[in-house]
Structure formats: structure tokens, C-alpha cells
């Protein structure tokens, strides 16, 4: 059983100024003998956004709940600004953690006005509350709505009130669990960017949970990719996207095309020519993976395709199965000739070849990823 109470002085680190806003070390949680959060470590610096990204059920919300203090870990430590919040024996109660929460279901109090909703987090602040409420309503762009009630506001406006309410007590850390998924697409981008700008201006450390790669790429300074309770890769969005740790990490961000091959003398022979496979042993099976937007297309010239090149290898012929316009690009699906594979190719703009048309596909070598095939 953990002891609730004040943090003892020896748990306050002297180098607090340089400390991350939030630091989680080796956090674990089991339910009914099943580990759902498995040795999770991450940190969030002041004014930075870390995104916990992963599929449904991988343990993101449980991690957030432990940091908020509403769920207790089985082991591991949680620190904020160099102060121990919980180490499995001692724990700071949720209301003393100075952690703000924003969830998809942001539930404003329907019987309270906008100003009263925002002031809710400031109870006990006395006369200072009024000034802070007005300041926050200005910051979120709703100065004229202080006396309105939630049902008189649009979804986007309600979201801004929820943000003002969460910011009211000046949390050092903001935990956000899919906070924008209830908003329609057009509203969402604007509100996301405004929210981030505000949180950064307040130097708040943000831990955002999402299962949407686009949201993580758009918002995060750092992405922590989570799978089955574990963080499998951490890094800047650009690095996570371009240097995925394995095929599943790559596939989490986009559709993929896959070629299986065996390595001989550091080379894998495929219908697209040879691929150099440095670091893979002789006889090892590999998976060569390429995203649909990186496959190059060329026209059929009486049964012939483009000449092989060093950068693109050989072309392989595919027969169009289906082509769809997606808005800014077109998705063309192929059945490959001569080997059992289907390929997807994304082409910018409108490109809608009819089913049955042959086209030649090539794979730029600098765009593909080579992984050991799963055993
Ligand atoms: N109180 C609980 N008792 C038992 N199992 C739980 C409890 N809370 C969560 N779980 C299980 O732990 C796993 C992780 O759940 P969690 O809500 O953390 O996942 P998530 O990644 O946030 O998913 P989602 O994106 O769908 O919200 C799930 O299998 C869930 O069923």
C-alpha cells in the first residue's frame, strides 16, 4: 500500500532547473496478471510535446492515468520538475500534482457559464480568479463569451473553454488523451495549432496520447511509439517516419508494399532487380518494404518498360486492378505479373488508368527499407 503525503526533501533533485517537466521511469502495470504497461520510460521537456502513439489497447491511457495519479503503478517512478510524484511506495495525490487533463470527452458543466466553468479550477483563488478567467478567455479567443452557457457554443468553442479551464491553475504538465478527435476535420487543425501555441507559450510540458499518426506528426516534438504495453521507438517525428525500427513501425504510418527475398552474398534477388542488404547474413530471409508514394511508375512501350538504372534497379510490370482519386493524389492498385504480389502506388494529382492497363513499377533504392523477415 502506498503512503499518501508530501514529498520528502531528499526526493527533490538539486538540478531541478534543468529537469524535464515530466519524467517517467520503468513504469509497469498489470491487470488480472496481464502486463498492459511494460517498462515504459519517457520524458517531456518544458514547452515540448511528446506524443504517445500506438494502436487501440496498447496501454496509452493507462500510462496517462498513472501519471495523473488516478491509477497506481505496480512499479516504476514518476517525476515532475525534479520532484518525485510516485515511486511505488510514496505518492503525491492527484490534486497536488499540478497536472492538467484534457480528454476527448471534455464535459463542461452545463449549468455553469463559460466564466464559471473556467473558474472551476481556481476555487480558493479569491479575487484573483476573475482576472485570470478573463485573461484565459482572451487567450483562447473567446472574450465575448464569458456569460454564455455550453449549449450556446459550437464544438470548437466548447473545446477552447475546456482548454482555458485546464490551463486556469497553470499546470506544469498537460496530459491530453485524444482531445481533438471529437472535432470535425476543418475545425480540428486550427484548434490543434492554437492549443499547442498556447501551451508552449505557458512553457507547459505536454504528453499527448493518440492513435492517429498524422496527429502525432503534426503536433509532436518527440514521438514515443507504443505497442503491446512497450515503447518500441522514440524520436523526432521525421526520424520515426524515415528510420522505422521494424516493418510494423513503418506500417503504422502508411500502407506498405512488401517483397520477400533471400540474401546471397549481401544481395537479395527480386523481380525488381538486386537489392544490397548490408548487415544481413547469407541465407537470411529479408522483407523489402516501400511506401506506396515512393514507388515510381512508367508507361508500357509494346511490352517493354524503362531501362534498369543504379538508383531504381529493374522495372516490373503490373496490371491495374483499380484506381481511385483521393483528393490531392490517386491510389492505383496493381496485380504484379510473374510473381504473386499486389502493389499500391500513390501518384500526385489525378491519374486514373483503366483496369487491365499494364504499367511498369520501379523501386528507388534510397526509399526502401530492408528488415529481417519475422521468424
Ligand atoms: N481497470 C482495468 N482493468 C482491467 N483491464 C484494464 C483496465 N484498464 C485498462 N485495461 C486493459 O488494458 C489494456 C490497455 O488499455 P488502455 O486503455 O490503456 O489502452 P489504450 O492504448 O489507451 O487504448 P485506446 O486507444 O483504445 O484508448 C486494454 O487491454 C484494456 O482492456
From TrEMBL:
Under the heading Gene3D superfamilies, the entry gives:
P-loop containing nucleotide triphosphate hydrolases (3.40.50.300)
| Any GO MF annotation of the entry | ABC-type ferric iron transporter activity
BP term (GO), one: quaternary ammonium group transport
Which keywords annotate this record? ATP-binding, Cell membrane, Ion transport, Iron, Iron transport, Membrane, Nucleotide-binding, Transport
Q: Name one GO cellular component term.
A: ATP-binding cassette (ABC) transporter complex
Q: Does the keyword Magnesium apply?
A: no
The protein's superkingdom reads Bacteria
Task: Please tell me whether the keyword Transmembrane is annotated for this protein.
Answer: no
Where do the ABC transporter domain residues begin and end? 22-253
Name assigned to this protein: Iron(III) transport system ATP-binding protein
Supply the source organism for this entry.
Poseidonocella sedimentorum
Amino acid at each position: 500500500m502506498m503512503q499518501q503525503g508530501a514529498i520528502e526533501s531528499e526526493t527533490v533533485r538539486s538540478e531541478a532547473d534543468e529537469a524535464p517537466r515530466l519524467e517517467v521511469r520503468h513504469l509497469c502495470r498489470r491487470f488480472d496478471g496481464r502486463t498492459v504497461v511494460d517498462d515504459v520510460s519517457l520524458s517531456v521537456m518544458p514547452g515540448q510535446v511528446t506524443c504517445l502513439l500506438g494502436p487501440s489497447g496498447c496501454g496509452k491511457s493507462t500510462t496517462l492515468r498513472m501519471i495523473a495519479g488516478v491509477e497506481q503503478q505496480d512499479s516504476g517512478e514518476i517525476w515532475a520538475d525534479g520532484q518525485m510524484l510516485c515511486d511505488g511506495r510514496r505518492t503525491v495525490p492527484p490534486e497536488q500534482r499540478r497536472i492538467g487533463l484534457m480528454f476527448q470527452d471534455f464535459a463542461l458543466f452545463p449549468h455553469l457559464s463559460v466564466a464559471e466553468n473556467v473558474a472551476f479550477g481556481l476555487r480558493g483563488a479569491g479575487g484573483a480568479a476573475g482576472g485570470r478567467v478573463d485573461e484565459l478567455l482572451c487567450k483562447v479567443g473567446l472574450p465575448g463569451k464569458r456569460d454564455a452557457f455550453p449549449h450556446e457554443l459550437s464544438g470548437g468553442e466548447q473545446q477552447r473553454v475546456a482548454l482555458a479551464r485546464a490551463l486556469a491553475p497553470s499546470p506544469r504538465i498537460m496530459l491530453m488523451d485524444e482531445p481533438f478527435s471529437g472535432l470535425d476535420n476543418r475545425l480540428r487543425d486550427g484548434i490543434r495549432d492554437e492549443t499547442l501555441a498556447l501551451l508552449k507559450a505557458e512553457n507547459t510540458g505536454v504528453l499527448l496520447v493518440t492513435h492517429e499518426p498524422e496527429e502525432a506528426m503534426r503536433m509532436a516534438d518527440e514521438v514515443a511509439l507504443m505497442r503491446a504495453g512497450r515503447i518500441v521507438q522514440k524520436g523526432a517525428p521525421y526520424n520515426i517516419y524515415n528510420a522505422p525500427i521494424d516493418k510494423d513501425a513503418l506500417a503504422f504510418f502508411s500502407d506498405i508494399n512488401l517483397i520477400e527475398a533471400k540474401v546471397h552474398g549481401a544481395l537479395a534477388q527480386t523481380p525488381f532487380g538486386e537489392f544490397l542488404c548490408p548487415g544481413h547474413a547469407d541465407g537470411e530471409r529479408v522483407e523489402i518494404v516501400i511506401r506506396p508514394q515512393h514507388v515510381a511508375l512508367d508507361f508500357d512501350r509494346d511490352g517493354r518498360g524503362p531501362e534498369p538504372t543504379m538508383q531504381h534497379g529493374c522495372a516490373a510490370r503490373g496490371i491495374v486492378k483499380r484506381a481511385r482519386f483521393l483528393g490531392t493524389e490517386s491510389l492505383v492498385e496493381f496485380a504484379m505479373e510473374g510473381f504473386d504480389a499486389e502493389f499500391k502506388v500513390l501518384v500526385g494529382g489525378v491519374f486514373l488508368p483503366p483496369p487491365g492497363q499494364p504499367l511498369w513499377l520501379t523501386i528507388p533504392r534510397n526509399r526502401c527499407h530492408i528488415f529481417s523477415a519475422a521468424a
